[in-house]
Amino acid sequence: MAPGSVSRLLILACHCVNLPHQPAPGTTGVQLTSTSITSGKVAVNGVHLHYQQTGEGEHAVLLLPGMLGSGETDFGPQIKNLSKKLFTVVAWDPRGYGHSRPPDRDFPVDFFERDAKDAVDLMKTLKFKKVSLLGWSDGGITALIAAAKYPSYISKMVIWGANAYVTDEDEAIYQGIRDVSKWSEKTRKPLETLYGYDYFAKTCEKWVDGIKQFKHLPDGNICRHLLRLVQCPTLIVHGEKDPLVPRFHADFIHERVRGSRLHLMPEGKHNLHLRFANEFNKLAEDFLLEKSP
């Protein structure tokens, strides 16, 4: 969903009556409406991270965006429609993305680990005792690392479009998206609006170089060595028409994350949670609400 769509949602929300949200202690933020969405920035690990928060539920859920993504560009239907009674939903912008700037985004070889620590520390700063994770694409990788490294803090996890290692096939796919001028206008426009063309184009090139680093590590490893450490109930969703992440990546994660579940969406592409938002939201809600055996 484009940033403008979220703004229209916020304006419409002003006409509803609900309990107001207060920004968390220590944040600099603004109450965007009296009802549904709080937006703020909070100091975490030396940077100021931007987040949106909605809902009144006891079950805290963090939405983790993909490459170049932010809460507003990547999760419009989830911020709007996940149950506000059952969940408190937080959508964050990783450092260098969205409104978590400065700093500019960079890609050291440990950038996924850095994002995982930032994400967990953000939620702790916002005073959540435990959280569940919904991670898309790069956000799915970050979620896997967070679940492996901070097992006592993560309740459940839903990931889609993620991979634990990089192959020759992946490298060719990444090279194909390096030049953002070749992207479809529908995909490009929200990010161009958010960043401006120059930052968007430059950061995409830096991302491609950053993700290609893993190809030179043993087995193309990103986080495959951590999968056995994941303890939380995990749902892996995969779109069978995903042009960016081949099916074997979902199978690999499913085979190595103990007790995980794999759900295939035959018509789903990489953005299955946007194109099939109602189906995805119900799938995620049902899984998050399911009682553990």
What does this structure look like?
InterPro entries: AB_hydrolase_1, AB_hydrolase_fold. GO terms for molecular function: serine hydrolase activity. It comes from Ailuropoda melanoleuca. The chain is α/β, with parallel strands linked by helices and 293 residues long. It has a domain at 38-166 and 224-289: 3-Layer(aba) Sandwich (Rossmann fold). 38% of the residues lie in helices and 20% in strands. It is built from 11 helices and 9 strands. α4 (111-125) crosses α5 (138-149) and α7 packs across α8 (197-212). The protein is globular and about 45 Å long.
Largest sheet: 9 strands, mixed
For the record, what is the CATH homologous superfamily label of the domain at 38-166 and 224-289? Alpha/Beta hydrolase fold, catalytic domain
Strand and helix order: HEEEEHHEHEHEHHHEHEHH
Mass-distribution shape = globular
**Helices and strands: which structural class?**
alpha/beta
Q: What would the CATH topology of the domain at 38-166 and 224-289 be? A: Rossmann fold
Helix content: 25-40%
CATH class membership of the domain at 38-166 and 224-289: Alpha Beta
Signal peptide: 1-16
Pfam families: Abhydrolase_1
Domain AB hydrolase-1: 60-191
Protein name: Biphenyl hydrolase like
